[in-house]
Specification:
Shape: globular
Order of helices and strands: EHHEEEHEHEEEHH
CATH architecture of one domain: 3-Layer(aba) Sandwich
Structural class: alpha+beta
Largest sheet: 8 strands, mixed
Number of helices: 6
CATH superfamily of one domain: Gcn5-related N-acetyltransferase (GNAT)
Radius of gyration: 21 Å
């Protein structure tokens, strides 16, 4: 049997018909415009439609800045998403959204674990998040605890609790000591060779890569 895929990279396209009663959960890191369109559709349905969040508050300018988005699927149907933003010594888990017709599944739990696994793989040991007060118990299941000194956090018409979690180190994180080819692999696909590794098998043909020949003085 092959090596088990990381949870955040478990999605394989064309893995069967989709349906609300299916239990085939899988996840991937968003890397294409089509992936971002799926995320926009899910978050628009959950936050803008259900929670009546204004557009400029939901799409806050952070989606393309030092963020990784995880898409959750039931078969081939995109049904959930999660955003992870990375700072110097912590990662922030946020924007968890699951389409309402799929909330009786375990997908919401699995996509959070996928985000945590991704952060650990990138070497992070501390997580931070803002939980709606009604969802503090949900986030506590992943080891999150309320920050001791709360300042009172309210935005987009909800009250939030600051929470944090401390993680065990990943046994094989991506770091500056990793193989350089691993570091340049696509986000979330550090477990398999990338296209740049294949390009590395070609001979150097660029004239910019050749040694400079110094002309003798006249």
């Amino acid at each position: 049997m092959g090596e088990k895929l990381p949870l955040y990279a478990s999605h394989a396209e064309h893995n069967g018909p989709h349906g609300i009663n299916s239990k085939r959960y899988s996840f991937k890191c968003a890397r294409t415009l089509n992936d971002m369109m799926m995320i926009t559709a899910i978050r628009s349905a959950v936050f803008m439609s259900e929670q009546e969040c204004p557009y400029d508050e939901e799409f806050d300018g952070n989606d393309l800045c030092a963020a990784t988005h995880i898409l959750g699927f039931i078969d081939e149907e995109p049904v959930a998403c999660l955003r992870v933003r990375f700072f110097a010594d912590f990662a922030k888990i946020e924007r968890l959204a699951v389409r309402h017709e799929y909330r009786n599944s375990r997908l919401s739990f699995q996509i959070v674990w996928a985000g945590i696994e991704l952060a650990r793989k990138k070497g992070y040991r501390k997580l931070y998040g803002h939980a709606q007060d009604r969802l503090v118990k949900f986030w506590s299941r992943f080891g999150f605890k309320p920050v001791e000194e709360q300042q009172g956090l309210v935005f987009s018409d909800f009250a939030y609790t600051e929470m944090y979690a401390e993680l065990d180190p990943h046994p094989d994180p991506v770091s500056i000591d990793s193989d350089p080819y691993i570091i340049i692999r696509p986000e979330g696909e550090w477990h398999k060779p990338g296209v740049l590794e294949a390009s590395g098998t070609r001979p150097i043909t660029s004239p910019l890569g050749q040694p400079t020949v110094t002309q003798p003085a006249a």
